[in-house]
Amino acid sequence: MGIILGVIFHFIGGFASGSFYMPFKKVKGWNWESFWIVGGLFSWLIVPPLAAWLTIPSFADIIRQTPSNIIGTTFLMGLLWGIGGLMYGLGVRYLGMSLGNSVILGFCSAFGSLIPAVYYNYVPTEGKETQTLSFMLHNTGGQWVLLGVLVCIAGIAICGRAGMMKEKNLSAEEQKASVSEFSLVKGLVIATISGILSAFFNFGIEAGKPMADVANAAWQAAHPGEGNFLFQNNVIFVVVLWGGLTTNFIWSMILNARNKSFGDYTNKGTPLFKNYFFSALAGTTWFLQFFFYGMGESKMGNGASSWILHMSFIILVANMWGIVLKEWKGVSKQTKTTITIGILTIMASVLIVGYGNSLPK
Question: What angle do CA 205, 115, 126 make, to 5 degrees?
Fold first, then answer.
C-alpha cells in the first residue's frame, strides 16, 4: 500500500510541476525576468517555510541545530540546482512545454539518478554502501538502473531529433504561433545545461537527509508504530530552496537592470493585480511538486526510482499541455511519430529503472 501511495503522491507532484508554467502565460506586459522572480519568491522563500511550519512546527530549531557542513552542502546543491531551474524557464520559453520539458527532464532524470551514486562512490557514507556507482556496476539491479539511464538519454536524443524536424516542417510564422520565441539551437543548449544542473536537487535531498531524520524520529516518538513521517522532507526543502532563490534572484535583478524592466512591478499600464496573482499561483504550484515529492519519497525512498518516477510524470503532464497548446500543430506525421517515440522511450527508461530498483541488493 505504501508503494501505491508513493506513486499517487509522485503523480500529484508531477502534475503540479508539469502545469506550473501555465499561469505565467496569463501575465501581460511584463518581461520574463519580472514574472519569473515574483513567482520564484513564492516558490523558494514564502511557501516552503510555511509548509514546513504547518507540518513540522520545530523545523527552524532543526535547521539551527544541524551541523554547518550539512547546511552548507545542502545549500550548495540548491545553488547549482537554482542555475538549472533558472535555465528551465528559458528552455521552456524557447522550446515550448512539450519539447522543452522532455529534453530538460530527461537529462534531469538521468543525472539525478547518477549524481548520488557517483558521490557515494568517492565519499564513503555509512548506510549508503549499496548506492555507490561501483556497487551498481557489479549488481544486477544496479546494472538495470544504469541501462535505464542510457535508454533515457536515447529518448532525449529522439526528442531532440523531433525538434529539428519541427523546425524544418514549420515556417518562422508557424513556429511563433505554437511557441512565440521558438529557437531550437538556443533552446537545446539551454535545456541540456538545465537538465544536468537541475539534477542536483536530488542530491540536495540526500545531503539534507539528517534534518529529515530528526523530524522523522520526533514524529515516530509521538506516534509509535505508525511508520515514517509523511512530511519529513519539508525541512530539507527550506534549505535547498534558499540556494535556488539566491541564483535566480541575482540573475533576475541583472536582467531587470539590463532590460530596464524594474518598472514592471509598478506599471499601472499592465494588469498589476492579475500579474502578481498569476505569478504567485505559478510559484505556489511549482512548490507543490516537491511537497508531494517529499510525501512520495517518504513512502518509496529517495533512490533513482523516486526521482525518475517524479520526472516521468512531469514529462507526461507537460506533453499533455503541449497538445492542449497545439505546439505540434501543422507538423508532419513523421515528426509527430518521432516525438511520440521519444517520449515513450523516456517512459520505458522509467520502467527499466523501477525494475532495477525492485531487484534485491
Answer: 65
Instruction: Count structural domains, the chain.
Output: 1
H/E/C letters for each residue in the chain?
A: CHHHHHHHHHHHHHHHHHHCCHHHHHCCCCCHHHHHHHHHHHHHHHHHHHHHHHHCCCHHHHHHHCCHHHHHHHHHHHHHHHHHHHHHHHHHHHHCHHHHHHHHHHHHHHHHHHHHHHHHHHCCCCCCHHHCHHHHHCCHHHHHHHHHHHHHHHHHHHHHHHHHHHHHHCCHHHHHHHCCCCCHHHHHHHHHHHHHHHCHHHHHHHHCHHHHHHHHHHHHHHCCCCCCCCCCCHHHHHHHHHHHHHHHHHHHHHHHHHCCCHHHHHCCCCCHHHHHHHHHHHHHHHHHHHHHHHHHHHHHCCCHHHHHHHHHHHHHHHHHHHHHCCCCCCCCHHHHHHHHHHHHHHHHHHHHHHHHHHCCC
Digit-coded pLDDT (tens) for 115-163: 677 777 777 777 777 778 888 888 888 888 788 878 877 887 787 777 7
User: Residue 13 in contact with residue 233, Cβ under 8 Å?
Assistant: no
Phi, psi of 64 (to 5 degrees): -60, -35
The closest alpha carbon to 198, from 132, 101, 321, belongs to: 101
Contact 24, 278 (CB under 8 A): yes
Please give the residue range of the domain that contains residue 112: 2-358
Higher pLDDT, 15 or 121: 15
pLDDT band, residue 313 (cuts 50/70/90): confident
Cα–Cα distance between 16 and 5 in angstroms, integer? Answer: 17
Nearest Cα to 291, choosing from 232, 211, 210, 208? 232
Distance between CA atoms of residues 186 and 188, nearest Å: 6
Give tens-digit pLDDT for 152-199: 778 877 877 777 777 677 665 555 454 556 676 777 788 778 777 877
At 136, list the grid cell.
551498481
- Helices 68-95 and 32-40: angle between axes, nearest 10 degrees: 140
